[in-house]
Amino acid sequence: MPKLPRISGATAVRALERLGFELLRQSGSHVIMRCGSKGRVVPMHDEIKLGTLAGVLRQADVSPDEFIAAL
Questions:
Q1: 2 or 14: which carries more pLDDT confidence?
Q2: How far is CA 70 from CA 18, 20, 21, 29, in A?
């Protein structure tokens, strides 16, 4: 498994949009995205912690390879 990069919340949202997720709404500093029945919450922080990013990808059923390619 490749090492996940340290990225911002906005960059993560753009990468997930390239993978087919759509932005539903934003509540405070968190963005709610969905792809089919899979919905995820992405924090809009300056830098997402690696564990948080890994959790978002795991719940979204996106591999780190796919995510890095979408960056």
A1: 14
A2: 6, 10, 12, 23
